[in-house]
Specification:
This protein is α/β, with parallel strands linked by helices. It has 17 helices and 16 strands. The chain has helices at 2-7, 11-26, 28-40, 80-83, 92-103, 115-127, 140-155, 196-201, 210-220, 243-256, 277-280, 306-309, 333-348, 350-374, 409-413, 420-433, 451-472; strands at 59-63, 66-69, 74-77, 133-137, 159-163, 202-205, 224-229, 232-233, 239-240, 259-263, 286-289, 300-304, 380-382, 394-398, 436-437, 442-444. It binds pyridoxal-5'-phosphate (PLP).
Length: 473
């Protein structure tokens, strides 16, 4: 019976079997650790993306471009702390400062400390803001959730508009239209536990589709509290917004009194030492930052128009105060300090850092496409900039299943047009076997990745391409 089942396995399954065998051979200690983890933790851990199958490796050290696992394997890493580590893992300049201040006694106090003012001033200055205000929190999820609450409180409206393919963390207001599902696309429910009423009040529009945005706003604009979007779409496909689309989004939201929220959790300080909005010349009403701005720590910021942000305080002009009150670790003094060190470094060395990141991105995306083309495996990379974003260190490899170009989150995440399983699962394992760690087909290059790392990575994609050709043709 078993033999019969095996006989029906398709190439993808056989390839997976092969890769799992190779992966298990090199990660025996991680497998043992995972078995312990499974006995005490749901699914063996605390973050779904980190828990790839058959089991994740367990990191014991990380330095610059690379991470070492429990078995002593070193991987060139493009996950880089969920894209937070733009300088690579454990940059010495932050480590040194934090170590010294920990010696002086810098654990959590629960009192206000002045580093947060420095960080707020710096962020406002970089955005060219004068009248806006900042409040810090500890995750992008919380920051986007609070921005939606502020928008709802400010406008008194009850609908939220977001992009199909937009990920803003797991806040109930925004847990819709993240995963493309057969049949329902980006309109399906994706999490139990979110009140049905909230799901119904979250509307989805298509990225870079001005006509769709105009249609929805025309129909329901007077009920929509906010439109939240990433100017550079992250996990939905690594796609930049077009100049025209963001300009139209600004114009239409202003016309309909909708609060425009830019989620710059990924794009903030990734392409320039500021928000990418500066390049577009579009000023949203609220911006959310996270990841890079914490210098490797749990920091996120909500930056917005003063009259909207005042909802946190007095609730003046609101139906009541918005309880964006903060949590135990909000604006932790050391986190603020780490963020400051990071941002000051990026600003000081912007002339070398950002062109270098852009060159690395160009090299890797082109090299990966060449590696697959050499084996006759249809593949393409997203992650590049456009006429607004001059260069990009992001990369996501895709495997089109038809002849058409993949341009939208719908194209990139629909199994009928793009082999999502190959990107998300098999490519990951194929690269791990060759000492490279990616997520969603690629990731974010850091300043610490040197030419030799990129060359090795392209070689590893080449090995993956050869395997794909062997098993899938
Ligand atoms: C664009 C975007 N917004 C928000 C979030 C949520 O941030 P956090 O993971 O810090 O809660 C993420 C996380 O990946 C993100 O990519």
């Amino acid at each position: 019976m078993k033999g019969t089942v095996r006989g029906h396995m398709n190439g993808m399954d056989r390839l997976r079997d092969h890769l799992v065998r190779e992966y298990v051979k090199k990660t025996k200690k991680s497998r043992a650790v995972f078995r312990r983890a499974e006995k005490v933790m749901i699914a063996g851990g605390s973050h779904t993306i980190r828990l790839w199958r058959p089991y994740p490796f367990f990191a014991t050290r990380a330095e610059g471009p690379a991470v070492r696992d429990a078995d002593g394997n070193w991987y060139t890493d493009y996950w880089q702390g969920h894209y937070a580590n733009v300088l690579g893992h454990n940059p010495r300049l932050i480590r040194r400062e934090i170590a010294a201040s920990l010696e002086r006694g810098a654990l959590h106090t629960g009192f206000e400390a002045s580093h947060q003012i420095d960080l707020a001033e710096l962020i406002l200055r970089r955005l060219g803001y004068q009248n806006e205000r900042v409040r810090f929190t500890t995750s992008g999820t919380l920051a986007t959730m609070y921005s939606v609450m502020l928008a709802e409180g400010f406008t008194g409206r009850d609908l939220v508009l977001k992009i199909g393919g937009g990920w803003h963390g797991a806040s109930p207001y925004l847990l819709k239209g993240v995963k493309f599902q057969p049949g329902t696309g980006f309109e399906g429910d994706e999490s139990a536990g979110v009140l049905e009423d909230i799901l119904r009040r979250t509307l989805i529009t298509r990225f870079n589709d001005g006509a769709d945005l105009e249609r929805i706003l025309k129909e329901k604009g007077d009920r929509i509290a906010c439109f939240i979007l990433e100017p550079f779409l992250g996990v939905g496909g690594f796609l930049p917004a077009s100049r025209e689309y963001l300009a139209l989004a600004r114009e239409l939201t202003a016309r309909y009194g909708v609060v425009l929220i830019f989620d710059e959790v990924v794009s903030g300080f990734r392409f320039i030492p500021s928000g990418v909005q500066v390049l577009y010349g579009v000023r949203p009403d609220i911006t959310v930052f996270g990841k890079i701005i914490g210098g490797g720590h749990a920091v996120a910021a909500v930056v917005g128009r003063r009259d909207i942000m005042e909802g946190c305080e007095s609730g003046k002009g609101f139906r009541g105060r918005v309880r964006f009150d903060g949590g135990t670790f909000s604006a932790h003094s050391e986190y603020m300090r780490a963020g400051l060190i990071m941002l000051k470094h990026l600003i000081r060395h912007a002339d070398t850092i950002y062109p270098r990141l852009a060159r690395s991105g160009d090299k890797l995306r082109a090299g990966v496409e060449r590696a697959f083309a050499a084996e006759g495996v249809p593949a393409m990379c997203t992650g590049a900039g456009n006429d607004v974003i001059p260069g990009s260190s992001m990369i996501m490899a895709h495997f089109p299943t038809g002849g058409t170009l993949l341009r939208s989150p719908e194209d990139l995440n629909d199994e009928r047009r793009s082999n999502v399983r190959l990107r998300e699962d098999l490519l990951k394992l194929a690269l791990l076997v060759h000492d490279v760690n990616v997520v969603h087909g690629g990731g974010a290059i850091s300043v610490a990745h040197v030419t030799a790392d990129l060359d090795r990575t392209i070689e590893a994609y080449g090995q993956a391409a050869r395997l794909f050709k062997k098993f899938l043709n």
